[in-house]
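We modelled the chain as a single entity of 235 amino acids. Its sequence is:
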Amino acid sequence: MASRVLIVEDEQHLAEGVRFNLEAEGYEADVVETGEAALERLLGAAPRYDLVVLDVMLPGKDGFAVVSELRERRQFVPVLILTARGRPEDVLKGFDAGADDYLAKPMELAILLARIGGLLRRTQWLRGPADRYTFAGRTIDFDALELTVGDRVLHLTLMEANLLRFLIGREGKAVSRKDVLEQVWGLHEDTDTRAIDNFLVRLRRYIEPDPSRPRHLVTVRGVGYRFIANPDGQS
């Protein structure tokens, strides 16, 4: 069955061009022009979409508000945001709202199709063997994008899961914000930003017994962050 993509774009010529090319690649594609119309489609009973291509600058609710509301309503369809505002702070705002990937406008069609294909492949990978990491009574299922803490199961966004995977892979080591920007979000910028602290705050709420006194996701003053799986076992 062909993957179904919802295109949320108020520039009609651009939306129709994207739809034409997606259909030429074998996808099913629908177009809406406002954030409100997108939410109506995505939160309705049918049809179900496999991916959303979402412009940020929309009449009414903008793209940030749309993806934020989707996540609040526990709708985790992959979202690729299109933005003419390519500053790291704006891109991170989209990730913070719950987007899974971004592409700056104007974009090359081949790059857009590659990004869409990549996000859809991730959905297919969920059917494969689980990729799990367990520490201190917590289990992260990176394939299902789920964090289990006791009897609670929390859904992670792709960006949250990628950030956790990155920090866990460097357990015990200080990781700079610049490394996170470049290797997790692909933002090759000289200017550091603290916007990603928002992600750590949210992840601490998920993981830490007392988020105000973190023991697993700690801040390294003047550097960045460190993941510690077993703080009681440190020498």
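As a brief sanity check on the tokenised model: The mean pLDDT is 85. The chain has two domains: 4-125, 132-233.
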